[in-house]
Specification:
The protein has about 600 residues and is of the alpha+beta class. Among the domains are: about 1-155 and about 575-585, no CATH class; about 295-350 and about 455-465, no CATH class; about 360-440, no CATH class. It is about 35% helix and about 15% strand. It has 21 helices and 18 strands. The strands form 6 sheets. It has a 6-stranded antiparallel β-barrel. Strands 1-5 form a two-stranded antiparallel sheet. A hairpin with a 7-residue loop joins strand 7 (about 360-370) and strand 8 (about 375-385). The longest helix is centred in the middle third of the chain and has 24 residues, at about 190-215. The two termini are about 20 Å apart.
Length: about 600
């Protein structure tokens, strides 16, 4: 760890969006203390770490790997390991192995994310040691927040969930660095519980110093949503408490936050600004502020988060920017949204091929290409006709099948074939019982003949299809964190009220609201809350954690180039492998496989 964390420290220049480059990693804490104003530059540089492309593992400083951006890797390592996103085939991009739970410890997305998160922690430690309490309490609070945030990402990505640790107290977390003196110690992986305890302590310190700054004669003017704030520290602490199953503590913080929230947060929010202008939206608590002048955008726009979900060159919703467009909506997520066509969220983020008007539909379904191949892909039958009873007849590989509408537990219709499953060929290829019926239309062909349903949640800032300032903390999460905490505490009425708040502001009608006598087919309030979280936060990296931390299994039996099956919440593959460079240098133990 000592060696790995020291790589490039003396050479790296941390950049602010609005300030000159400043050599923060070349400065010691004592040098920072001699020049307190420098801590402003270095703190701004920490924020830039999340979006910049940095040279690593012998790369040229002038030409770093254009795929190595922390935000890009983070959102792929979280969202693609859930059940909201399908990937159409194999690729040289390292996301595909993590998507399939087959990552390797030498892969760039693994080592870069680990390395960058620890650089965030290192920079925060330098500033915390250098900033005297009372000299700039707001800046000190920001660094406590950033140190907590770095450790939180590390422990949630590279360790098993906190709830697993509660059953297995020996479960290892990551290496903790809370103070510059810890870098002289032999690296040791603390337990998951110990890492979470340190995160809570840091967030409480952040809150304390943010509040001290607010009471001072000259409170900080760093009020842009691109900076951490008192609200951000409390919102992150509420999330951490929820992950720790400290539900009353989570509830108390959320109550406090929402008592002082902007009115627009609980009534509606402007989908013209969120997510295309998160930095100026009342929905946003904290975002990673990006600009058209940022180097990552001017040099590598096709490596953005958006470019993996969307390609604007033909559709030209914005500037016609090109993207890879390899990540699509999973069918079940589409079904959740399509219960209510009024849902503004679906209209804001979903982009599908233009359907024909002749009433024809397509039927799509997962298909295993061979009995010995664990991966599934996609089968599609075009030009199908809906029967009078709502069923759909289709033929696949010269066999006839009927897709019958079936009422789901959530109160919406899905389709099942008229057999428990069917074998489509002598090679053992097969598809499953559940199929998906969609309006037919022009479908761009690619490997596997996938229907392309683009996601535009990370596109459109300043009219650019590949630009976004992703919200890392927002008010919708505070509302649904409270809903989940209430549901777990047995307060089902208040939990449903918060779900209704989210649904009302999304434009859903009165008959879509929940109460004890109108559960729309659900039998569990927790199921209601988790489905609402799935829709509200789709593609934002929450679903992966929401499933496993609630001791639920991840059902990945859907179309996509991944292993078809269910991943148990106790599966050791949930914890990413630690980079091999780290293992070889510091000799900390690797995660199980």
């Amino acid at each position: 760890m000592k060696k790995i964390l020291a790589i490039s420290f003396a050479a790296l220049l941390l950049a602010s969006c609005n300030m000159d480059f400043y050599p923060s990693d070349a400065m010691t804490s004592s040098q920072l203390a001699d020049n307190p104003a420098s801590a402003v530059y270095t703190t701004d540089g920490i924020y830039s770490l999340f979006k910049d492309f940095l040279a690593y593992k012998g790369e040229s400083e002038d030409y770093p790997n254009g795929r190595n951006q922390y935000l890009r890797h983070y959102f792929q390592l979280t969202e693609l390991r859930g059940d909201n996103v399908t990937v159409s085939g194999t690729t040289s991009d390292p996301f595909v192995r993590a998507y399939d739970y087959q990552e390797v410890p030498t892969e760039e997305n693994i080592y870069y994310t680990w390395w960058l998160a620890y650089k965030v922690v290192y920079g925060a430690n330098s500033n915390i040691d250098a900033i005297a309490p009372g000299s700039d309490d707001h800046l000190l609070a920001e660094n406590y927040f950033l140190r907590a945030f770095g450790h939180f990402h590390l422990v949630t990505l590279f360790a098993m969930p906190y709830v697993y640790w509660k059953d297995h107290p020996e479960a290892l977390g990551v290496v903790e660095h809370r103070g510059m003196d810890t870098y002289s110690e032999t690296p040791v992986r603390k337990t998951v519980g110990e890492i979470y305890d340190g995160i809570v302590l840091d967030l409480k310190e952040a809150i304390k110093f943010f509040e001290a700054d607010a009471r001072s004669e000259k409170p900080s003017t760093r009020t842009d949503r691109g900076y951490a704030s008192l609200t951000a520290a409390k919102a992150l602490l509420a999330r951490v408490y929820l992950y720790m199953e400290m539900n009353q503590e989570c509830l108390d913080i959320c109550d406090e936050l929402l008592a002082n929230a902007p009115t627009a947060v609980t009534d509606t929010y402007d989908y013209e600004k969120f997510p295309t202008a998160t930095y100026d939206s009342n929905e946003t608590i904290w975002c990673i502020r990006a600009s058209v002048t940022d180097k990552f955008f001017t040099t590598h726009p096709t490596s953005s988060i958006s470019s993996m979900y969307y390609d604007d060159k033909d559709l030209k919703r914005w500037d016609g920017g090109t993207g890879w467009g390899e990540h699509y909506w999973a069918d079940e997520l589409i079904d959740l949204f399509q219960r209510y066509p009024e849902d503004k969220r679906f209209a804001a983020y979903f982009l599908q091929p233009a359907p024909t008007n002749d009433g024809k539909v397509l039927v799509s379904f997962p298909i295993k290409t061979k009995a010995t191949n664990p991966h599934c892909s996609s089968g599609i039958v075009h030009g199908c006709t809906v029967n009078a009873d709502g069923s759909v007849d289709f033929k696949y590989k010269n066999k006839n099948y009927t897709a019958t509408p079936t009422l789901d537990a959530g109160g919406y219709t899905h389709y099942e074939v008229n057999t428990a499953g069917f074998v489509s060929g002598a090679d053992g290829s097969s598809v499953q019982k559940r199929v998906y019926v969609r309006p037919d239309g022009s479908v761009r062909q690619n490997a596997g003949d996938y229907v392309i349903y683009f996601n535009t949640k990370f596109a459109g800032q300043d009219g650019k299809s590949n630009l976004t300032s992703p919200a890392m903390l927002r008010w919708g999460e505070v509302v649904l964190n409270r809903a989940e905490a209430n549901a777990k505490l047995g307060n089902e009425g208040p939990a449903l009220n918060d779900v209704n708040t989210i649904r009302r502001r999304a434009g859903l009608p009165a008959d879509a609201m929940f109460d004890a006598t109108h559960m729309h087919g659900y039998t569990s309030v927790m199921d209601v809350v988790l489905d609402e979280r799935r829709m509200e936060f789709c593609f934002e990296g929450h679903r992966y954690f929401d499933v496993y931390r609630n001791r639920r299994d991840m059902d990945r039996r859907f179309v996509g180039f991944h292993e078809f099956g269910i991943i148990k919440w106790t599966d050791p593959r949930i914890a990413l492998l630690i980079p091999l460079d780290e293992i070889n240098t510091s000799h900390i133990p690797q995660n199980d496989r």
